[in-house]
Amino acid sequence: MPLPSFLRLLLLAALWGGSFLLMRVAAPVLGALPTTFARVLLGALGLGLLLLVLRLRPQFGGKLGATLVLGVVNSGIPFLMFAMAARSLPAGYSAILNATTPLMGVLIGALAFGERITAARVGGVVLGMAGVAVLAQAGPVALTPEVLGGMAACLVATACYGLAGFLTKRWVTERGGLDSRIVALGSQMGAVLVLVPVVAWELLRQPAAATAWLAAPAPVWGALLGLGLLCTALAYVLYFRLIADVGPLKALTVTFLIPLFGVAWGWLLLGEPATWAHLAGGGLIGAALWLVLRPVPAAPVALQGAR
């Protein structure tokens, strides 16, 4: 992976790792679904403002429909699934299941998009998941129907992430490409559109939620702005640029780094302890990244006339 792309990968992981801290501030006050909707709405507005400042016209070149669908697959559905899972799953389990994204990408790529599946990539995915498990230090939970449903929701979300990377490559990159900022804007517009009726129905069922929005203190609004403008708008610009530069599988390895940055932000900003388990998990994740990101050997070419 070229150095600029690797630095983008690190910055993306830092942003998405920080999103857990910001959601910890906003979600208990506003609820998971309104927080998710505010995140994608502010992300879309932030991206629109960015294009306006840069005087970059949002010309989709006939790919507007594709980017809207990408937003549903890559943001709308996964955000809803993780919000549902949070009702029954401990955060550690969600982090572990989120790390199955590259595995989903490897499987979907091999089954539907002709990607080569190698022992090194599979081994890297397994090592990465083990590293996240060590970091999360998740304990056993009873496999109740609610817990199983939460696990299934997480796996639906990671399958969406894995699928969206390849759809972006096929629908956008291989059809002439688009500026990553325009792809990010279209994707967040799609997420907003799919979440509008869900949020409207939730507010009709629970009108008190609207009052919580109006009465939210300044730190909550600050957290929402950070989630929307930094962890969504800027993050998706970086993500779609990574897909265009290094491909979907390598871009998906960001999910291995997110827990590391989540721990680092917690240690720096919240005074949470850093333990030997964090160091061990970080070592496993580093080894996983090396296995997944290293170049794939070229397939052997049969010699003409060989018998």
Automatic annotation (TrEMBL):
Claim: Transmembrane is one of the keywords in the record: yes
Localisation: Membrane
First-listed, main subcellular location of the protein, grouped into a coarse class: membrane
Transmembrane segments: 36-54, 66-86, 92-113, 125-143, 149-168, 180-200, 220-239, 251-270, 276-293
Superkingdom as given in the UniProt entry: Bacteria
Alphabetical UniProt keywords: Membrane, Transmembrane, Transmembrane helix
Domain EamA: 9-135, 150-293
Protein name: EamA family transporter
Cellular component terms per the entry's GO annotation: membrane
UniProt feature coiled coil, ranges: none
Recorded topology in the membrane: Multi-pass membrane protein
